[in-house]
């Protein structure tokens, strides 16, 4: 699977989606123009992060309908102060997130609200699915702080997960490290799990 490396610190999710779109439809170019088009149409303003609902809507509009799995539909960003956002900013972001959710529902994007487990991630990959999953990148990037990003998971074999991290590279990560990345998203980053499943 060919990666698209992000051109800004804020377009990880957009670049992840672009890699998936190009995989299914090679005519969709891995370009900065497309990266920015996805980012502009999916941002949860006034934050710069993309909405999982808007990412799904964008993919569906291009003929690739993913399944959205979330543990809760509501927007939540508990450590927003570390990113210099105000409480009012987060209230606006929650409103934007709900607009993206409503648009996805109008476009008949499949959205389910249920628990997401590491075991399920492995099963979906074992069944040949491609995922964009929210993970804590600190365990494999060796970041100084816990950071949540939507990254591509496109395979599991011989104890390694095959991922695309648009900020760095495409690589394979030992199961134990990815499990730590998955579990610590909630325990250390305090974000809920969210996944796009592409068939």
Order of helices and strands: HHHEHEHEHEEEHE
DSSP strand count:
7
CATH architecture: Alpha-Beta Complex
Largest sheet: 7 strands, mixed
Q: Which structural class best describes the helix and strand composition?
A: alpha+beta
Average of the residue pLDDT scores: 96
- Looking at CATH, which topology would you report? Cathepsin B, Chain A
Name of the CATH homologous superfamily: Cysteine proteinases
- Report strand order across the widest sheet: 2-1-7-3-4-5-6
Explain what you see.
With 199 residues, the chain is of the alpha+beta class. The chain is 40% helix and 21% strand. It has one domain (12-198): Alpha-Beta Complex (Cathepsin B, Chain A). It has helices at 12-24, 32-42, 52-61, 87-106, 118-126, 138-141, 175-187, and strands at residues 67-70, 110-113, 130-136, 148-157, 160-165, 169-174, 194-198. The protein has a seven-stranded mixed beta sheet with strand order 2-1-7-3-4-5-6, with helices on both faces. Helix 1 (12-24) packs across helix 2 (32-42) and helix 3 packs parallel to helix 4. The longest helix has 20 residues, at 87-106. It is globular and about 45 Å long. It starts with 11 loop residues before the first helix and ends with a strand.
